[in-house]
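Renewal narrative, Specific Aim 1. Our central claim is that a sequence can be written position by position from structural information alone. The example that follows is taken directly from our test logs and has not been curated for this report. It begins with the structure tokens describing the chain, in the order in which they were read.
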């Protein structure tokens, strides 16, 4: 992408992100939406409790219509995952899986909160004892260790690459890798041992992870396994730049009624700011976040 500064970057292409893009773009600001509608919890759902919708409507149909709508308003959609966010100056720098860096005046987090699980024996029992869902959070605990990352998308590959700076041996297991050519090239040049096509069948250990059994019947001795399914979660990305979480559970991004976080220029909307997990709430918060982010960007440009 060029050196131009984007006014509003929205991370997440669900109902909150789409609505934020609609309102931000209508305020004559440059808007980029990062993400894939297939990652939204709404994509596979059926909706019948949303105002003005008659009967049952597929979530996929609504999301596809929303993407078409925001493009008509001038917003750009990039189907890439975000690897990291930094703020080296008054602008934010967002690194995509392709290696592209986008500079923006504002960011809206609208990615949801769920962490997908493997659903295999030993996963729940050894959570926090060698089973982790966040490389960025726990990599430092595995210095000199043997670790595995399970996943096929950017979060898994980026996590495996990060772990090479800490662990003495890193495995990456996936049925099939689906990442950008640039990220794949980095992986191929690294020391990560890639196990494909394969998958985790069972995690073993008593007071900590000791090994895993893979679907091909092989067993690998390990000290820890990181489950990174999909793209990096909003909490991981937000905490990289100091966005505050809720004080009770540290599970959601803390916002005020304007969807503002503690970091000027950063907003959040939808499931990531807490329940109820309903499309109506997500759309309402996305509306507010989009308008507020656009107003902030326009004021910054005039300053």
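The sequence written for that structure reads:
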């Amino acid at each position: 992408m060029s050196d131009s500064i984007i006014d509003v970057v929205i991370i997440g292409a669900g109902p909150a992100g789409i609505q934020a893009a609609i309102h931000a773009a209508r305020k004559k600001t440059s808007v980029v939406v990062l993400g894939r509608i297939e990652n939204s919890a709404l994509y596979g759902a059926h909706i019948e409790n949303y105002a003005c919708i008659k009967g049952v409507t597929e979530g996929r149909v609504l999301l596809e219509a929303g993407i078409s709508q925001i493009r008509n308003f001038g917003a750009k959609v990039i189907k890439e995952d975000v690897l990291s966010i930094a703020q080296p100056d008054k602008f934010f720098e967002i690194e995509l899986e392709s290696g592209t860096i986008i500079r923006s005046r504002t960011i809206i987090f609208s990615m949801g909160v769920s962490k997908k699980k493997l659903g295999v024996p030993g996963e729940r029992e050894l959570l926090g004892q060698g089973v982790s869902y966040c490389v960025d959070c726990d990599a430092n605990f595995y210095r000199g260790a043997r670790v595995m990352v399970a996943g096929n998308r950017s979060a898994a590959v980026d996590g495996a690459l990060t772990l090479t700076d800490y662990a003495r041996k890193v495995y990456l297991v996936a049925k099939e890798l689906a990442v950008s050519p640039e990220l794949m090239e980095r992986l191929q040049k690294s020391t990560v041992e890639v196990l494909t096509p394969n998958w985790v069948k069972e995690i073993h250990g008593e007071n900590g992870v000791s090994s895993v059994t893979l679907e091909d019947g092989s067993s690998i001795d390990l000290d820890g396994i990181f489950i990174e399914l999909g793209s990096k979660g909003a909490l991981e990305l937000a905490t990289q730049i100091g966005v505050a979480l809720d004080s009770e559970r540290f599970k959601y991004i803390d916002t005020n009624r304007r969807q503002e976080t503690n970091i000027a220029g950063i907003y959040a909307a939808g499931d990531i700011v807490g329940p109820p997990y309903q499309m109506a709430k997500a759309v309402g918060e996305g509306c507010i976040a989009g308008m507020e982010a656009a107003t902030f960007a326009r004021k910054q440009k005039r300053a």
